[in-house]
Amino acid sequence: MATDVKVPALGESITEGTLAQWLKKPGEAVAVDEAIASLETDKVTVDVPSPVAGVLGEQLVKEGETVAVGALIARIDEGGTAAAVATPAEAAAAATTNPQGAGENPELREEPVPLIADDDHITTLSPAVRRAVLEYHVDPSKIQGSGKDGRLTKDDVIAAAQSKGVEPSPAIAPVPQAKAPAEPPPAAPPIKAPAVAGERREERVKMSRIRQTIAKRLKEAQNTAAMLTTFNDVDMSAVIDARARYKDLFEKKHGIRLGFMGFFVKACALAAKDVPSVNASLDGEDIVYHDYLDVSVAVSAPKGLVVPVVRNAQALSFADIEKTIADFGKRAKDGTLTVDEMTGGTFTITNGGVFGSLMSTPIINPPQSAVLGMHRIEQRPVVKDGQIVARPMMYLALSYDHRLIDGREAVTFLVRVKEAIEDPTRLLIDL
To answer: Is residue 202 pLDDT above 80, yes or no?
Structure first.
């Protein structure tokens, strides 16, 4: 009996997605709730689970196609038998029996695809990962996967190769996955000619849905808000000293490292009490003020920037803030953040300093009215008590919607943040 697999609900206001990748091939066994495909929406990547145990029969949608919620994409045969998959020993024996690819053109012969084996099962690599493995000449069994259930991603392979200074080979042709014996062999793909010195190349890649949404929202923000940015700099000496003094005790007690973000989140919560308009939003002709601070923290993910929300930040401890942000960062890389976790923020903090940014003008995230930009820390000469001394300084940037926030309010907010960072005792006594 065949069971239909349909696109699950993807979150509030999301009606469609793109089938990014099939995680199972026709003929492969699947367990109940095991992911068989991944869908890319405007905000997150969502796995499509199998509703029953059985064998994947038909794939009714191709990778890259847009599918609506509730659309039929595959069928599971509950009484089917999984196709056999060659083990590494069998693959090696076959290669030994026919080492020169008898009966085929040596120039078109395809290299065997390595399989990743663990204690319980053997999984094949996805097409994109296989190609990266061959291009960069790395051993996939020695790379820690960051994908779903520890699967290797293309980014994992490239990162491993770059860490060893390995450059890709441009002449490697795609290698198909190992097929069940019952299936006919695929046609040999064309062999790309080696790159010629001085040759100019182009590659056209379709934008992901997440990247399209980022582009659309940022442009809408520029077109709608009266955006302006004010700057200040902050001496990070006190925060750096506090971290150095308490980092070991903090990690021992809470199981998490004490970072900079906890200080800035608490400083923004304190400043928002004095300047509530920075934590407000516009709804038509109404201004909506919030007595809570839900901070959208910009996190880098493989497919673009995402902004999960630390809710009720004003009431959280440093440890709770750091644990929440660390969890968001990990799950952003894994692609397991939910839509609900990335909606509803009232204020945004983004840290371009982790990438080396000295100064920037961040764009607000509507319907929010302000965003704080952190930047890299570097020793700069400043005047203290009439003496020129070196201090670890950071530039801060506050972009805000001038329709709602006056310049005086924006500057006041940023000064309050600066004062709290330069004297963290203010965070404890609410000054």
So the answer is: yes
Beta bridge mates, 348: 296, 371
- The residue that leads in pLDDT, 50 or 381, is 381
Going by pLDDT thresholds of 50, 70 and 90, the confidence category of residue 81 is low
Confidence at residue 396, expressed as pLDDT on a 0 to 100 scale:
96
Angle, helices 318-334 vs 237-254, to 10°: value is 80
In eight-state DSSP terms, residue 402 is T
User: In 3D, which of 413, 373, 392 has the Cα closest to residue 238?
Assistant: 392
% of the chain exceeding 70 in pLDDT = 78
The crossing angle, in degrees rounded to 10, of helices 261-274 and 318-334 is 120
The mean pLDDT value of the chain amounts to 79
- Catalytic positions, written as ranges: 402, 406
To the nearest 5 percent, what fractions of the chain are helix, strand and coil?
30, 25, 45
Q: Two tokens at 94? A: 């076959």
Start-to-end C-alpha separation, the chain: 68
CA 310 to the chain's CA centroid: 17
142-170: b (≥16 Cβ within 10 Å) or e? ebebbbeeebbbbbbbbebbeeeeeebee
Q: What is the mean pLDDT of residues 73-99?
A: 57
Highest mean pLDDT among 42-46, 253-257, 398-402: 398-402
Strands 370-374 vs 347-351: parallel, antiparallel or unpaired: parallel
Chain centroid to CA 377: how far? 24
Pairing of β 35-40 and β 45-49: antiparallel
Band (pLDDT 50/70/90 cuts) for residue 108 is very low
How many whole angstroms separate alpha carbon 360 and alpha carbon 375? 8
CA distances from 12 to 37, 42, 59, 80, 234 (A): 21, 12, 27, 36, 40
What DSSP character marks residue 342?
A: G
Give 38's Cβ-side CA count (13 Å radius).
Answer: 15
Q: What is the rounded CA–CA span in Å between residue 19 and residue 23?
A: 11
Is the pLDDT at 94 greater than 50? The verdict is: no
Domains identified in the chain and CATH numbers: 2-77 (2.40.50.100), 209-429 (3.30.559.10)
